[in-house]
Amino acid sequence: xxxxxxxxxxxxxxxxxxxxxxxxxxxxxxxxxxxxxxxxxxxxxxxxxxxxxxxxxxxxxxxxxxxxxxxxxxxxxxxxxxxxxxxxxxxxxxxxxxxxxxxxxxxxxxxxxxxxxxxxxxxxxxxxxxxxxxxxxxxxxxxxxxxxxxxxxxxxxxxxxxxxxxxxxxxxxxxxxxxxxxxxxxxxxxxxxxxxxxxxxxxxxxxxxxxxxxxxxxxxxxxxxxxxxxxxxxxxxxxxxxxxxxxxxxxxxxxxxxxxxxxxxxxxxxxxxxxxxx
Length: 278
Hints:
single chain, alpha/beta, Rossmann fold, six-stranded parallel β-sheet, five-stranded antiparallel β-sheet, 11 helices, globular
């Protein structure tokens, strides 16, 4: 009997629209996967974006697309990119096959795959595993203190979120971020990708800590470590992998946009993840 392929739900990185992954989605569809690309609730072009929105609102968007299909008995793989690791993991809570079966429900999430994604080591704490929270002025270039940079990455001068500005509870990126996020893409492609980003994201989406983290997951976890990433360098990703106790790690020759740089490699890994969980 032919085993149906699972759904793949892609949770976007910060400021990324669903169509940022359109070419990669087409590749997966050619392989026979059905793909969901729920939009971030916390990002928009609008100056009136509700600054109170957090990752919890992103989870609502994920569930709005995913849960009706799980209720039909479908299975799913959650794939996150960068910031998307936060809402992606939160969306899995209570929705694995085992957890749903305990409630008399069919379907469920069978695996989690993180592509150069953020990983929170413990519940209700920051990425550093403590209570550190940025307190920006009304217009402030984000920095991480040297103290905390040394705690998490002795060799890395933390500049990830870095080329962002915060004003009135909303974050915008400076043009400097383009060279970090799309460092290994052709210049015109990088400009196109950067120009297509949402203009704003809520500050709270970065500062509200999760109630459910990678170490809570009871399903297989795979990390795609992007060796040429200039936004979240490989040395920090290695720490994230350790903090999240990932079962499998694949190292990719890519910057922070593996879905553009090495889409075939990512698609092949997803095929393996599915076959290993049949």
